[in-house]
Design brief:
With 191 residues, the chain is mostly helical. It has helices at residues 2-8, 12-20, 24-45, 49-65, 76-98, 101-109, 121-126, 130-141, 146-153, 157-175, 179-187. 33% of the residues are buried.
């Protein structure tokens, strides 16, 4: 019990060093701290909840096996999110090869606008095409550069940049307050 309390107060870099030395409790604390963020990223990338759970588990297993490679130059959360994002991309590419209908299906759903006045980011992400969602999630959720995202999904850099730009433009439109609401707030002196 005292050992589990001892790891909760440590920084991620210290926990990673202990995990590299074989301390499973230290790695368990890293999983506890960052598991939900990794699953959240995967869901925003388009994974169903059960798939997100499976890929997150695989990502943490990979991280455990490669923990000695974590040098603490960035955050542990960003490092494990990159692993998870790459695993998801591999699955996505494999699934895309199995069916040609994925792109056509997503293009038909990409522009729908919900009538609900309050839309959160997860709902807005669902309005993007699969490629836009993937590229935006890799670049902004997993912290990859455009070039790293292009390499990860095997697409030209310009294509990734286009998907990110279109995706961000769609998100801005979806998440922006209604045009009249902004003017009303300005008139009342609230903005």
């Amino acid at each position: 019990m005292a050992q589990s309390r001892a790891v909760t107060g440590l920084h991620d870099v210290e926990l990673a060093a202990l995990a590299a030395a074989g301390d499973r409790a230290a790695f368990g604390e890293l999983v506890r701290r960052h598991g939900s963020a990794v699953r959240g990223l995967l869901r925003r990338m388009g994974a169903q909840p059960s798939t997100a759970d499976d890929i997150a588990q695989d990502a943490f297993l990979t991280a455990f096996e490669r923990i000695a490679e974590f040098r603490g130059e960035g955050t542990f959360a960003a490092w494990v999110k990159r692993i998870a994002a790459r695993l998801y991309v591999r699955k996505w590419r494999k699934d895309s090869r199995m069916t040609d209908e994925v792109e056509q299906d997503d293009e038909g759903h990409g522009g729908e606008v919900s009538t609900v006045s309050r839309i959160d980011l997860d709902e807005a992400m669902k309005s993007l095409s699969e490629q836009e969602r993937l590229c935006v999630s890799l670049c902004y959720g997993a912290g990859l550069s455009h070039a790293e995202a292009a390499e990860t999904i095997g697409a030209p850099l310009g294509t990734v940049k286009s998907h990110v730009k279109r995706g961000l433009d769609k998100l801005r439109l979806r998440l922006a307050p209604a045009e009249g609401a902004g003017r009303d707030a300005e008139r009342q002196g609230h903005v």
